[in-house]
Design goal:
10 strands, about 30% helix, about 210 residues, globular, DHBP synthase, alpha/beta, 10-stranded mixed β-sheet, single chain, about 20% strand
């Protein structure tokens, strides 16, 4: 049975955030809100937790996992960022975008794309997600909470509680979530390539980096 914390969406209770982070460090799989849809995440290096998320979402080894980062400086530890990419990142983070970048050696191999050594990176603009990252002190491994066969993220925390209570360890209820995931932008080949249109406006990425 998963635990269920009702967290204030604008002023997250420090006690609940601390408990959530302790659970993440102990191997928990956690559902939490972002500035796009809800996501499911775990500790960056926890192989067992990552495999649970793979099974939940039915993901293969070609899926780009995302590292949720507190800020741009933390993101820079895990990705190779050239000048053009940095300008785009600085202009659009925090925000509802996931950027596919070439990974550094800091990224655990189990999170990398099987052939390309790429990773998704994102800086969320949501108080609960930011509070988690601040308390955790490192990125959170994350994927959108889009269940197999569905096209949009789950948005109702009580529905999540009913359907996921035996699959995740904790649900952070921050109210109804968006029905759109983040917009995904590939920055590995110089020019931005839009891989998925979601919450974030794709227009700024239709020209050269």
């Amino acid at each position: 049975m998963s635990q269920f914390f009702q967290v204030h969406p604008e002023n997250p209770q420090a006690r609940l955030i601390k408990q959530a982070v302790e659970m993440i460090k102990d191997g928990a799989v956690v559902v939490y809100p972002t500035d796009s849809g809800y996501a499911v995440g775990c500790h960056i290096g926890d192989k067992a937790a990552v495999e649970r998320i793979r099974r939940l979402r039915q993901l293969d080894d070609k899926h780009n996992f995302t590292l949720l980062c507190r800020d741009l400086s933390q993101l820079g530890l895990f990705a190779k960022v050239d000048t053009g990419a940095f300008r785009l990142l600085k202009a659009h983070t925090p925000g509802p975008y996931t950027f596919i970048l070439n990974a550094t050696r800091e990224v655990p191999r189990l999170l990398l794309h099987a052939k390309r050594r790429t990773i998704g990176l994102r800086v969320p603009n949501h108080p609960i997600a930011q509070a988690l990252l601040e308390q955790l002190g490192e990125p959170l491994m994350s994927v959108s909470l889009i269940m197999p066969g569905e096209r949009v993220p789950m948005s109702d925390p009580y529905e999540m509680r009913q359907s996921l209570e035996h699959h995740v360890d904790l649900i952070l209820d921050g109210g109804f979530g968006s029905l759109e995931a983040s917009t995904v932008i590939n920055l590995t080949d110089g020019e931005p390539q839009i891989l998925r249109v979601g919450c974030g406006d794709p227009t700024p990425f239709t020209g050269p980096a």
